[in-house]
Structure formats: C-alpha cells, structure tokens
Fold this protein.
Amino acid sequence: MNFQVTVLKILVSYPGGFAPMADLKRDMAILATSGRDWADRTKRLASRVPDLDIFSQALIERLNGGWRITDDGRAVLDIMEARACDPEPANKNMPAEPSPAPPALRLRVRRPGPKDRQHRREPGERTRANAS
C-alpha cells in the first residue's frame, strides 16, 4: 500500500477535504487490511507520479489536529487517476476499442445525523397533533 496515495484518497473523500487524525488513522487501518486490490491500486496510481511527496509538495496541510488536502493535492490526484492513453491496436485496420475506466474508489464514511435519531412522542402528543 502506498501511504501517500492513500492519504490523498482518504482526504478527498471527506467534506472540505479535512479529516481529524483519529479518522485518518482509522481509515488507513481499514484500507491497509482490505487486501491486495487496494495495495495494487495505490501502487499503480503512485507509479504515474514517481516523485510524489505530499508533505514537501504541499499537497496536504496540517491544521487543527488533522490534515486537509490542498487544491494542488486534488490536481495531482486527478492526474494520477486520469486514464492512460489507449495503445495502438495490433491490427491498424481495426479501430481500438476504448477500455473502460477503472471505477473511482471513494471512501465514504456515513456519520449518523439528526435524521437518524428517533423522535419519540409522548402518548398524547400524536393525538393532539392529529386533532389540530
């Protein structure tokens, strides 16, 4: 697993691109134990930007107990995820069929919101609401 690519992918999945360190560590642990697919994917993405250094290139910034992806970080991630040009077909008389783009992996963590809390009415409250 490529640590730097994984950090970029996690941060871009959060609202505003900011994740507290505890959330970032938890998400990293989940991805690190998710199997070969994630490791292979991050290595492939990292190979497109061999001199990647998220810290010295200011692709992320540290603030308020967490990290935030910068606009430059988003741009580099877009470059890494851009589909490579299709190779020339073996038979030049036949057009090349476009290969499907790999699905973008976005880590989405759903946090409970106010709608998830059940509102319990008092026994007489429903009747009053219906009667008015």
Observations:
- The CA atoms of residues 10 and 132 lie 50 Å apart.
- Strands lie at 18-20, 60-63, 66-69.
